[in-house]
Amino acid sequence: MPDAVQRGKNIAPWVGLLFAIGAVGCNAAFFVNPPLQRTLPWLSMLFAVLALIFLATGLWRAFGQAQVYRGKVLSVVLSVIALLPVGFTGFVFVAARRLPSSTAAPQVGQKVPDFTLPDTSDKLVSLDQLLAAVPSPNSSASSPEAHAPKAVLLIFYRGYW
Fold first, then answer.
1. Does a structural domain hold residue 56?
2. CA nearest 144: which of 154, 136, 155?
């Protein structure tokens, strides 16, 4: 009877899958607004690169050192599954770089410049009209009492109505 060689487990694809999940987790954590938020995209890319390294190592072990490591099919399946989050992470990293910066956007509490937009009935309304003093509903027509609204809520829809 020939010597039965005990082949080891190939854990590199599993570690690669964990790093791939961690890369997507970094993208999700970006929206929680943690400290050092600007480092999260780079940490996500680091995890994605580490995932690719471990996946390549796992595939090399499964096919190049088949006499030492087992799990050819599992290595391929885990690599294909892990490539989806790694590809997503790379896509998000590149797409986020193409977004315009918001340095010119108004900050909270800052006065917005006047603008005119159509309302739901296509009547043009300016911000100054909305913030102008309006007569109080329970005052008489000859009474000078008027109050201006304290704020205007702007809702921006992406797309068309």
1. yes
2. 136
pLDDT, residue 18, reads 95
- Per-residue pLDDT, 63: 86
Q: What is the pLDDT of residues 26-67, one digit of tens each?
A: 888 878 878 888 888 899 999 999 999 999 998 888 888 888
Q: What is the pTM of this model?
A: 0.61
Residue with structure tokens 């702007």? 154
- Give mean pLDDT, residues 74-103: 88
Provide the β-strand partners of residue 116.
126
> Which residue range forms the structural domain that includes residue 69?
12-97
Buried/exposed code over 46-85 (b: 16+ C-beta within 10 A; e: otherwise): ebbebbbebbebbbebbeeeeeebbbeeebbebbeebbeb
- CB half-sphere exposure, 41, CA atoms < 13 A: 9
What are the structure tokens assigned to 106, written together?
A: 């108004």
Number of domains in the chain: 1
Q: Are 72 and 78 in contact (CB under 8 A)?
A: no
Question: Which residues have a Cβ under 8 Å from the Cβ of 11 and sit 6 or more positions away?
Answer: 58
Is the pLDDT score of 161 beyond 60? no
